[in-house]
Design a protein that fits this description.
Shape: rod-shaped
Low-confidence stretches: none
Number of strands: 2
Largest sheet: 2 strands, antiparallel
Radius of gyration: 59 Å
Strand order of the largest sheet: 1-2
Strand content: 5-15%
Helix content: over 70%
Distance between the termini: 125 Å
């Protein structure tokens, strides 16, 4: 850089040529000597610059590969999390559906059981009423038949035992 600065200074301070605005007078030997020194050092510095550029390119390439690897890993993890969230969402929906179905079945079973018990009790009550009516008719028939051939007893209410009352 120092040699280039020296060459630049030499050209910028050189005397101008009369009627030649863009031209100047430079000491040929000094200019050529500076150019030769620049050329001699240029391959060393150029190879160093190439090495630095190659190292920079390698570093950038490695950084890009690492960034791509990190991005792919992050995308895969994001997909896994989304899949897990989807599984949880589907599981919760299925769970809610099963709970609603079980509650509906439970209500329906309760309703059917209540109807069945109510019907069974109603039929039992009707059967008992019918049996009681037949028993009363039979008792009345017995009394009328017994009244013709036996002395009439006055019907006295008899007290029922605790066991009979519980039946």
């Amino acid at each position: 850089m120092e040699l280039i600065d020296m060459l630049y200074t030499m050209v910028s301070e050189a005397w101008g040529v009369p009627l030649g605005n863009d031209k100047c007078i430079v000491e040929r030997e000094k200019a050529l000597k500076l150019i030769e020194e620049i050329k001699a050092q240029l391959p060393v510095e150029l190879s160093e610059a190439k090495r630095l550029v190659a190292a920079r390119d390698e570093f950038i390439g490695n950084a890009k590969r690492e960034a791509d690897s990190l991005r792919r890993a992050a995308e895969e993890r994001a997909r896994q999390l989304i899949d897990e969230q989807e599984i949880v969402r589907v599981s919760q929906a299925k769970s809610n559906e099963l709970i609603a179905s079980a509650e509906s079945r439970s209500r329906e079973l309760r309703r059917v059981a209540t109807e069945y018990v109510d019907d069974a009790l109603r039929r039992s009550e009707e059967a008992m009423s019918s049996a009681l009516a037949e028993l009363r008719n039979a008792h009345a028939s017995f009394r009328s038949a017994a009244g013709a051939g036996a002395p009439a007893r006055q019907a006295q209410p008899r007290e029922r035992s605790d066991a009979e009352q519980q039946r």
